[in-house]
Amino acid sequence: MAEPAAAPTKTGLKRRRIAVGSSEQYDETTSRLGAGGFGSVVRARYRATDRPVAIKRLGAVRVPGTMDLRLVMECVGPSLHDVLRHKGPPGSPPLPEATPKNILVVDGHRVVKVCDFGLAMSTDEPPPYDPVGTLYYKAPELLLEKQDYNAKIDVWALGCVMAGLINGGEPSRASTT
């Protein structure tokens, strides 16, 4: 199966078409890249191009009588969490498990990519929405359990990640006195 071709969009960004195929086209390795509430991610090799890929096994969405679902994605660099843990300021605490681990550092630390949309939801439906987010990165409207939040909560979470980069730790570790 050939890789999906990129199709231009109105915004000029290229969007890839979804390709359906068999997991037999990939050689899985034993290295596990990560795990979360919806499944685990392993490193593999796409036989047709000999390029590394990441395969996410969606274990949490299994329904009896349905096929096993896996997502095949490009395999990129380490998470921001790993980069900070290994190259951060000496003695700085590691960032928490959730949000920084979902930001991958690519291309010699010049590019970042967001991954793990396992808890992503559509805001096309009217509120109230189910609670989302990781405690240390939650916007005030989520902490106050307001039901009418929007995509701006992601901007807050990104601000918390940036604060962690500047301070060398998670935002919740700041002194309140």
Automatic annotation (TrEMBL):
Keywords recorded for this protein, A-Z: ATP-binding, Nucleotide-binding, Phosphoprotein
Domain Protein kinase: 1-177
Top-level division of the source organism's lineage: Eukaryota
Gene Ontology biological-process entries: regulation of mitotic cell cycle
Pfam families documented for this protein: Pkinase
Binding-site list for ATP: 56
Signal peptide: none
Protein's recorded name: [RNA-polymerase]-subunit kinase
